[in-house]
Amino acid sequence: MRAPASPQLRFLLRGSSLLLVMLALWWWLLLNPLLTGIRLSADAVLWLLPGGRAASGVIVQPNGDWMLRVPIPEFLSKRDAVQRAYGRAPGSPPIKVRSFKLTIPDHIPTFFTLGLPLFWALVLAAGFTRRLWRVVAGGTALLALWALLSLLMYTAYSIETSLKLATSTAATLWNSAEYLNFNVLPYVAPLFIALWLHTDLRAQIFSWNAVSPPPAALVDVDKRRRGRYRGR
Amino acid sequence: MPHAQSTADAEPQPPSPPGTQMRMGRFVLLFAVCLAVLFGLMLAPLTVPAVAGFTHALVTVSAVLIRLFGGHAVAAGDVLENPVSHFAIQMAYGCNGAHVTILLWAAVLAFPASWMQKAKGLAAGTAAIHAVNLVRFISLFYIGQYNRDWFDFAHLYLWESLMMIDTLAIFWTWAYFVRKPGSAAHAGAR
Questions:
Q1: Interchain CB distance below 8 Å, A16 and B165
Q2: Confidence class of residue B14 from pLDDT cuts 50, 70 and 90?
Q3: Does the residue A42 lie in any domain?
């Protein structure tokens, strides 16, 4: 079977097929190690937060859901909204709030790692170059970090909506940021990172000058040259 | 000799034509501005009814297409239901192809081309994206009736990622035609 002549169609077909392969690889082989890595990294970040040494951690529950124990800094824990959320009665002494326990369904951290198979499919579909493995390694590292940051952002948003700490304007901006974090960036980030790191793919799409003449014309020129120098 | 080795491994990069980096920088800047404006518009309360109306229209078209091919489906707002099995799926805010449409629009608007060519790219690209999105929505309607786990996988992971690859291919195709020698857009590209 002949490969399609159009580089765009070839990329589309290759990319779609590779996506199926990469999703299968991700789902059955790589997801558990990736989730373990993100869980340990999130655990470390929470431990580093103020008050994290006393109360922090990420625990996987028997049903697979994640329970994050997020330390609440003292200046936040004294705020009225937090005190009310923890059931402090008016006039009674303040409650000491050390952490917030947030349970998130297991598909949330899984979803934040989706960028990896999409990125792998995009860069492999763009064609093999000598720098490909460096591109794959760099993009994988960036997207793993991205998954961790997205999870932390989701956690912060969930805690904020539970405790209602933001003003109405800040809440609007916060909602928009979380909408992008959860609905847009997991799909868009791999595309941007692939275009940034894979210089050949970027050059093919964004070659600002006119598209070069078809290869057939180049072959003709070569043939004429060979003929001209035959007698040498 | 590690130094010699690393030099040998380095792929020779062809020198960039003059102005390439400036053009890329201009594209990235314009793209980011267009993206911010378009996402801002999509999330603004003013445009919510228009986006909802568009979503309802997509669900209605899906129901008509399914019935045209002998299937059973009725549309009720943003919900598509099988009247026989009573299985129903909702086209949520992010499932109407708006995100990838915005991405394509931002890229087309930021790319150096004539306004006519940009208008053609926006129209044809949007039509192509929504044609794929209709296939996606109808396929999810059938997959959901067959297996719930497969539906979740196809909905969350497979189709959304495929839509991104499609969008990139659509933009690339448009950019290729815009840059073709002799095209009106190439002659008039700013």
A1: yes
A2: low
A3: yes
